[in-house]
Structure formats: structure tokens, C-alpha cells
């Protein structure tokens, strides 16, 4: 259980890093804090935070296309930065991460991040999009296993 130690904090750090990236030049890089910054990383699964940041950055175009296909009435580029980055992070975890994590955990964590940092009722939109993605993933994997 130690490896799953404080994934919530890792997700929060990854979200904050991805959010900040929107306001900097493309050449800027995101990095996980070094060991000296213990107050930031204490108890956090640093490797998981790094995996999220690198995974989302490397697959941003694919993730945005997937999000757009599950949100035909709203352009992903016009969403608030909080909602867009929470959706990217959770979509990476749901679809592209090699780790098997219960989709309900991922969606609940995304909803909580959105409630804490997003617009007042935007968590409902985030929930709807991620729920659809999770259900479609389950349907696809079930049909390929049969």
C-alpha cells in the first residue's frame, strides 16, 4: 500500500503544475520538486505526480481530441483552465496510464479538484464527461475480451 501513498497529493501537485503551464511559454518545463523541497513533497507519491505531468504533456493532443469527442456542445479550448486540466489529468489516468485504478476513484478525485478550484457547478460537467469516457472504455475493453 506504500506505493499508493498519497496519490491525492500527487494529483493535486500535477494539476497545479499543468494549470501553471498554461500561463508560461511552451519552452518552459514542468518538474517535480527536488528533495530539498520536503514541505511540498512530504508524503506525496512523487513518481506518480511526475508520470501524470509527463503523460498529459506528451499526449495532450490525443487527450484533447478524446475530450472533444465526448463534449460535442462545448469546445475544450474554451473551457476554464481548471476544468480543462482536471479533465486532461483524469482522462490520462483513465485511458493512458499503465496502472489499474478504479475509475470511480479517478472520477471522484477529479470532481473534488474541480469543486475546490473550479467554477461553482463545473464539477457536474467534469463528472459527465469522465463518466462517459469511463463507460466507453469499459464497453470497448469488454467487447475486445469477448
Beta-strand share of residues: under 5%
Indicate the radius of gyration in whole angstroms. Answer: 15 Å
The count of DSSP E runs of length 2 or more, i.e. the number of strands, is 0
Instruction: Count up the helices.
Output: 7
Enter the CATH topology name. N-utilizing Substance Protein B Homolog, Chain A
Description:
- The protein is 66% helix and 0% strand.
- The termini are far apart.
- With 146 residues, it is mainly alpha-helical.
- It has a single domain, classed as NusB-like (N-utilizing Substance Protein B Homolog, Chain A, Orthogonal Bundle).
Brief descriptors of the model:
globular; 0% strand; 66% helix; disordered C terminus
Topology at a glance:
Layout: H1 7-21, H2 38-41, H3 46-58, H4 60-69, H5 81-96, H6 103-117, H7 122-145
Can you give me a brief rundown of this structure?
This protein is an all-alpha fold.
Amino acid at each position: 500500500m506504500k506505493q499508493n501513498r498519497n496519490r491525492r497529493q500527487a494529483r493535486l501537485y500535477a494539476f497545479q503544475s499543468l494549470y501553471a503551464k498554461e500561463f508560461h511559454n511552451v519552452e518552459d518545463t514542468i518538474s517535480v520538486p527536488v528533495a530539498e523541497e520536503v514541505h511540498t513533497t512530504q508524503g506525496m507519491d512523487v513518481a506518480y505526480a511526475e508520470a501524470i505531468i509527463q503523460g498529459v504533456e506528451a499526449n495532450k493532443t490525443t487527450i484533447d481530441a478524446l475530450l472533444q469527442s465526448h463534449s460535442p456542445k462545448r469546445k475544450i479550448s474554451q473551457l476554464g483552465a481548471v476544468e480543462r486540466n482536471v479533465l486532461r489529468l483524469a482522462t490520462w489516468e483513465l485511458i493512458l496510464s499503465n496502472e489499474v485504478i478504479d475509475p470511480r476513484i479517478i472520477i471522484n478525485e477529479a470532481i473534488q479538484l474541480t469543486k475546490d478550484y473550479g467554477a461553482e457547478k463545473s464539477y457536474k460537467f467534469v463528472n459527465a464527461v469522465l463518466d462517459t469516457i469511463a463507460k466507453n472504455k469499459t464497453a470497448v475493453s469488454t467487447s475486445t475480451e469477448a
